[in-house]
Amino acid sequence: MAATALSSLDDQVALLLAGDRDTIQDPYPIYDRMREQAPVLRVGSQTAIVSRHRDVKAAYRDVQRFPQPPARASPFDGYLRLLSEDDLRVLGQVKAFESNYISRKNGADHLRVRTAAHRYFTPRRVEELSDTFQRIFDELVEVHLDEDEFDFLEVAYRLPLLVICELLGVPREDAEQVKAWGDAINPGHRNPLEPALVRAQLDALHANADYVRELIERHRQNPARNDLVTSVLEAADGNRLSEEELVAFFLHTLFAGHETTQHMIGNGLHMLMVHRDQWTHLCAEPSLDRNAVDEVLRFNPPVPSINKITAQEMELRGVTLPQGTTVLLMQAAANRDPEVFERPGEFDIARQPNDHLSLGFGPHFCLGASLARLEGRIVFGSLSRRFPELDLAVDPSALRYHRGIRGLDDLPITLGPRSSWQL
Fold it and tell me: Of all helices (H) and strands (E), which one includes residue 42?
């Protein structure tokens, strides 16, 4: 049953965290209520949700008191109840591997891995890839030019997937296998966790890790001067990355680098279609494509929250958080905080400034932020220039968001007549 205005806040949040299908379609009234009534909300004994912009930003910055949590199972009651002792051992192997992800590291360990990759992800370096990304996008759209309608999520998922494969030197024919591994490794929200998914995670991790080891070895034998693998390998020698950290970095980049961007693009086009005045504005001023990406990230981000953990007992807005509390930084709520944003509930692609937190903040600011922004600009800018009459092929009420990373199940569109600006 969906949350209603008459439900208690605790009941609404319980439905939200459980991934209730109806509740997650529009969680923003719950975020507003949480931010206003309980900006630090305890959920059970092990979890708290922080929802005001000032507090979320401060927690991102304060990596001593709010470090990245270790790779472990969810703290929510009942999450593991379907798992046997053997299943739990398998899950332990999955979590042990995940502990090498850059997103799980803190302090000097995080800095070592981030430094090895950072020089490739500078805005200037990423901007040099614009022509390559544009070519990939053009190829993906061209397939659908003669169709009356098609699911734009096919383009939205293939663009960042093929971009990441291009950056890592992964052959295009291997892209679908990479996607399949990523889906198995990151199966989305499941409560309780199913034994078959845990075993599929471990199998996919092993297969993908073997593939990445072969990829690394090929690049060591024949380095390509302009790709991400070579850049990281060269920098990694001076930063003393272990082989396990290298494998985990590239594996995580393969599947994490495309899923969130896919849904940022899908969510963004959805927002532009249902806020038709903003689409008209973008078509009239395509140079707003950069602003549009940031407003999409603020207004309807693919990652609503990020987990941290308390390194010590502390008090936040009068609420005591014991050491080891899992803290959900609810950036989707912080992004609509009226203390920071004028007209926070309005979608406005010309919004300036736009201090959203959807890409993180501080030491853990998203490494691939420039990459995601460029892909979004290419999509929204190209479509607005070429297909100003683009529209949804279904009633907006038919579109549904799924659990886990916030994204649509599908996004049927019609391109309409093409403008004189050709592919």
Answer: strand 40-43
